[in-house]
Design goal:
This protein is an alpha/beta fold. 39% of the residues lie in helices and 16% in strands. It has two domains: 214 residues, Rossmann fold (3-Layer(aba) Sandwich); 266 residues, UDP-N-acetylmuramoyl-L-alanine:D-glutamate ligase (3-Layer(aba) Sandwich). The strands form three sheets. It has a ten-stranded mixed sheet with strand order 8-19-18-17-16-15-14-9-10-11, with helices on both faces. It has a seven-stranded parallel sheet with strand order 3-2-1-4-5-6-7. Strands 12-13 form a two-stranded antiparallel ribbon. It is elongated and about 80 Å long.
């Protein structure tokens, strides 16, 4: 599924009109009809509907929806928020079709009229503003958005909640807080941001017949879903052996945090890694071995539980490394991590404390033959980039792309919407997972799944996307099945849920 900016959506529309031969009136008809069909299935028939419409294409979609609901037996009235002369082009065409069906229009709607009349309708359709919003909303429109937000009626937005910018990185003024949004053709970037998503409510994408060619070379951003996982997840060969599925090492776990590397190793083994070695301090091994019996162990030199070794040659025989979980941030430990990164050219996942070790040598990593994979949350990304957390949340796509391109590495920016970015700027969004993952150890588990996936026969992008999807899906399935709730879900529960995930997918 493609995710688009406003500019990309305009280009896709234009391509469909100019090269696909699809008239703009037909695109508007398709959109309105498709949304009306979904409303008819979700809402009881013969209810009363208030359609609040603006002047542009979004308003035109509203007139089409109003016509189809009127024909289906709903009581419909359109509250037009602009003077008649402002409704032009395709929107005017569909307004006239609605009038031809004896549709009712309040063409001189005031804030007082809307506030007085809305309580008499069962639900509201928001068709005021579309994807072109940037920054402040016109003063003439703001009060109408306020009235709708203050109403008790269910609100259904067309394509995007009015007032909400389509693009990440755009300032938000005021927007409709929808209960449901029917997104036309392709989700917009703001749907996958922490600041934009709450305005959409429940959402569904409504296809309207855009040709596939319209998307080519226009939107490198995609949402990774079940279909992509099933089609790319490697099959296990009947005659494969443990060496066929990767020899991985998990390096970290200072004396005070043995659980971190345990979670990573268990997740890697449970996700298909053939062999996993845990490299940690000696005192941790009895604790870890009692929980992760399938792993092998390597003792790292330490001083009072702080990793002090500098022997990187022991890790040359591995197919992949996961570095940093519970490792500590002492300089002597950072020196070891930096030597691993600089001297060993193999796939590496850098997480947690390893990210702090990485920052001083970022200018060197672009020369590696195997790009690094970093897995920061917003706070760690702020540390690496010197942007603030607020700035990263406002513009996660552009900041992740800028960083991945500059340093030629893969960025897995963790959050409710995890953004996977390649060195060439290709980006993918994963939205599986729930609030139960907001707990210590969840990132360690993800690092282990990633380690297992990057050692299998699939592209690095596919491996990262599949790992993120599987990690989040395990949390979702544990909660949805009632085994856990979002309160009591632990990182170890996510590992235990991986078996169910793979049974479901494979």
């Amino acid at each position: 599924m493609y995710i688009v900016t406003a500019e990309e959506m305009y280009e896709i529309d234009q391509y469909a009109i100019e090269h696909g031969g699809i008239d703009g009136k037909i695109l508007m008809e398709n959109a309105g009809q498709a949304i009306a069909e979904r409303i008819k299935k979700q809402e009881a028939s013969r209810q009363s509907v208030a359609v609040v419409a603006g002047s542009g294409n979004n308003g035109g979609d509203g007139f089409v929806i109003a016509r189809y609901l009127l024909l289906a037996g709903f009581t419909v009235k359109v509250f037009q928020l602009v003077p008649d002369h402002k409704v032009t082009g395709d929107a005017l065409y569909h307004k006239q079709l609605f009038i031809n069906q004896q549709g009712l229009i309040e063409s001189d709607t005031t804030v007082e009229i809307l506030r007085k009349d809305l309580p008499h309708y069962h639900f509201i359709i928001d068709a005021i503003l579309g994807i072109g919003v940037k920054g402040d909303i016109r003063p003439s429109i703001k009060p109408f958005i306020d009235v709708i937000n203050q109403s008790d009626q269910k609100v259904i937005s067309v394509d995007i909640p009015s007032g909400l910018p389509a693009n990440a990185g755009t300032n938000l003024d005021i927007a409709i807080k929808a209960d449901v949004t029917y997104v036309i053709e392709a989700p917009k970037q703001s749907l996958f941001t922490e600041w934009g998503a709450p305005y959409y409510g429940d959402w569904e994408v409504v296809p309207i017949g855009m040709p596939e060619q319209a998307y080519l070379n226009r939107s490198p951003l995609k949402r990774w879903g079940r279909e992509e996982v099933v089609s790319t997840l490697p099959k296990r060969d009947t005659f494969s052996h443990k060496g066929s599925h990767g020899r991985g090492a998990v390096i970290g776990g200072g004396q005070t945090m043995p659980g971190s590397v345990t979670l990573t190793a268990r997740a890697a083994l449970k996700s298909g890694a053939g062999l996993v070695t845990i490299a940690t301090v000696k005192d941790n091994i009895p604790v870890i071995a009692s929980t992760c019996t399938e792993a092998m162990y390597h003792v790292l030199e330490d001083r009072d539980g702080i990793i002090t070794t500098n022997d990187v040659d022991l890790f040359t025989a591995f197919d992949g490394l996961a570095i940093g979980m519970g490792m500590g941030r002492e300089q002597v430990t950072a020196n070891f991590t930096q030597q691993l990164i600089e001297k060993l050219d193999m796939p590496m996942v850098i997480d947690a404390d390893g990210l702090h070790h990485l920052k001083p040598i970022l200018n060197k990593v672009s020369k590696r033959n195997y790009p690094l994979i970093i897995t920061p949350h917003y706070g760690e990304m702020a540390m690496l980039t010197d942007y603030t957390v607020a700035q990263i949340k406002r513009s996660p796509f552009s900041i992740a792309k800028e960083f991945a391109s500059k340093h030629q590495l893969y960025v897995v920016l963790k959050g409710k919407f995890t953004i996977i970015t390649c060195p060439d700027g290709t980006q993918t969004v994963n939205d599986t997972g729930n609030a139960g993952l907001a707990k210590g150890g969840s990132g360690d588990v993800l690092a282990g799944i990633i380690l297992a996936m990057i050692m299998q026969r699939q592209s690095l992008l596919e491996a990262l996307c599949n790992a993120c999807y599987i990690h989040g899906l395990s949390a979702d399935m544990r909660v949805e099945s009632g085994i856990n709730t979002e309160f009591d879900l632990l990182a170890s529960d996510v590992i235990d849920g991986l078996s169910h995930v793979f049974r479901t997918l494979v």
